[in-house]
Amino acid sequence: MLTKNVSPMQVEAINAIDDDVEIIACAGAGKTGVVTRRIINILKCKPDIAPANIVAFTFTKKAAEELKSRIYSMGTAVLGHTKGFSEMYIGTIHGFCLNMLKEFLPEFQLFSVLDEIHTKLFVERYYEEVGMEDLGLQKYTETNLFISVMSLLNENWYDSAKWSADVQETFRKYQEKLYAEKYFDYSLILREMVHQLESNLLFRGIVAERVKYLTVDEYQDTNPVQERLVSLLKELGANICVVGDDDQTIYQFRGSDSNNILTFMQRYNIKKYIVLDTDYRSTEGIVNVARNVIVHNSRRLPKVMQSGCRTPYDEGDVCFKEFRQPDDEYEFIAENIEKLHKLGIPYSEMAILLRKRKPGQCIAEVLEECGIPFIIEGTNELMQTPECRAAKGVYEYLNGDIEASELYQRWLDVNYPFDKKELADSLQVLMTIDISKMKYYTELNLQRIYHDFLTGVSIVEDGRRETEIILYNLGKFSQVINDYEVINYTLSPRSKLQGFCSFLHYSAGSYYPEGHLANAFTKPDAVSIMTVHQSKGLEYAAVFIPGLNKNFFPAQKVGGKSMSGMQKQIWNSCGGTWSCIRCRNCKIQETSCECSQADS
Predict the structure, then answer these.
(1) If you average pLDDT over every residue of the chain, what do you get?
(2) Long-range contacts made by residues 324-331, C-beta under 8 angstroms, separation at least 24?
(3) For residues 132 and 143, what is the distance between their CA atoms, to the nearest angstrom?
(4) Alpha carbon distance 425, 405 (integer Å)
(5) H-helix or E-strand containing 543?
(6) What superfamily in CATH does domain 8-101+191-276 come from?
(7) Residues above pLDDT 70, as percent of the chain
(8) Contact at 8 Å (CB) between 280 and 19?
(9) Are 8-101+191-276 and 319-380+525-544 in the same CATH fold?
(10) May I ask the CATH architecture of the domain 319-380+525-544?
(11) What global pTM score does this model have?
(12) Which long-range contacts (CB under 8 A, 24 or more apart) does 563-566 make?
């Protein structure tokens, strides 16, 4: 059962349960199936290993759910039971570390985790206390920069002696404020886990007893602190299996280091090296394109990807076309989307992938002119949609920033047949809300105001595709409100409203929706426009990739860790000053800084 309908190399990987192993698996190579079978094989052949002794790190929660489902199914088929499987950890590396810290270290039991959006909101609320002001960084406009640097420092704290005094002090303030409010950000979870494993002998023993077999998926995307955790678990006696593909390293801008997978065998003295180089998902045409691109990677492990897909390949399945102007390219995409849709492919099975967010709105305008429904998933244009501009207007009106007439007009600009009387009545209800008379934070609930207003205007599904998209985006806006209130709910009513309006004005447009929004509304039948990074793990029947221009997509400079130039500026080139970081990112007084172009 375990080795049925699998290739010889997959069989070898499934049976590699006595040694540490590195599995290099190209896209579509069936790595999830291999990992599933290997875990079940461990439980079958190692009676002294309980499910609780097996840990598998996945890159996303979605990948974890898929792996869990397969393990349970295979366990039932091979072992005849799934007893104890609930104690097996399958999930993200951050989730594992958080669970261990909270379960075995009482001081962390009440801690919560701030995701990326909530971390930004946290920093903006406690702007002075976390040290941003000390470094001359601007609230809202430079929040992303501050958090990126803090994350980088968390990942490389063992080099803290190289940091300048002001950076060290800011980092201390940031960490202390998080701990005081009983919060972790993602990078701090890992740092604390590593710190405890390095210094707490009792905790080391608990973890050593718990983790006997460790699988790390998407190993090419691990960063320095994640790699340090893997090495510590190896030191504690865990069998290590890493799975990944150096040719699929796309998260270097977030701090991942491809050297981890390139040098794994040498650093850990690994003898077992298995290559799964057959792509069973993609046709020969797609594989040929990929092969012709990745062969030019400067540093890569030896492998030759081949197609094992049985789907017939037509020469026209992969199309290359040159254009003189971007508009010509966008019109070509729109024309072919319509052709494919007439052939029976739903709009929801088509995607437009971008390197950067900027062209997203231009493409959207062309699709709109052609009557093609679309959703902008990863280009940070959510707040510019008519429905979200109208939703923002509710709070801008309450804050005194706009008149009732403008708010009324914004809702009329939404492509929905509102009842004008209902709309006017809802505005009248808003006029009765007097923030100045509210004394306690519980008196102002931003989400309730939003819910009551939408209820008043009676916006409901009416069978139109346009309405589906409107409801989808309004659902996303609801989460924006929720994100803000999680951090700022206890502010005074006036401060809460003013802060939310400032957040909408300065920050929200750049924060959403880059993978942070879990929308309750069903995704409509519409073309997805997103960044190429956001598309990781997704599948579509047809994909369009505009802007494949030399030195732009892919970029001329490839490789290196995220913010490596910034890191260098922090403690090397600039002698530990902060001014060079600011000039590079905000273009403030850049002519006065000699190294402003060092990592442009």
Answers:
(1) 86
(2) 326/359, 326/362, 326/546, 326/547, 327/362, 327/366, 329/546, 329/547, 330/362, 330/363, 330/366, 330/546, 331/366
(3) 8
(4) 13
(5) strand 542-544
(6) P-loop containing nucleotide triphosphate hydrolases (3.40.50.300)
(7) 89
(8) no
(9) yes
(10) 3-Layer(aba) Sandwich (3.40)
(11) 0.80
(12) 563/148, 563/149, 563/152, 563/253, 563/255, 564/599, 565/598, 565/599, 566/148, 566/149, 566/152, 566/599
- Per DSSP, the three-state class of 372 is coil
User: Distance from first CA to last CA of the chain, Å, rounded?
Assistant: 54
| pLDDT greater than 60 at residue 37 | yes
Tell me what pLDDT residue 596 has. Answer: 31
What pLDDT, in 10s, does the model give residues 212-235?
999 999 999 998 899 999 999 999
The model's pLDDT over 299-345, given as tens digits with 9 standing for 90+, comes to: 888 888 899 888 887 777 888 899 999 999 999 999 999 999 999 99
Q: What are phi and psi of 297, to 5 degrees?
A: -60, 135
Instruction: Count Cβ atoms below 10 Å from residue 518 Cβ, excluding itself.
Output: 8
Which two three-digit tokens encode residue 276? 């799964």
Sequence spans of domains, the chain: 8-101+191-276, 112-184, 319-380+525-544, 382-511
Which amino acid, one-letter code, is at 147? I
Structure tokens, 108: 């962390």
The 8-class DSSP code of residue 569 comes to I
- In one-letter notation, the amino acid at residue 188 is L
In one-letter notation, the amino acid at residue 393 is: G
386-398 and 446-457 are packed helices; what angle lies between their axes, rounded to 10 degrees?
Answer: 120
pLDDT band at 282 (very low <50, low <70, confident <90, very high): confident
Contact 388, 474 (CB under 8 A): yes
* Residue 2: pLDDT over 50: yes
Distance set, CA 333 to CA 225, 329, 367 (Å): 42, 6, 9
Q: How many CA atoms lie within 13 A of 306 on its CB side?
A: 6
Tell me: pLDDT of 140 over 70.
yes
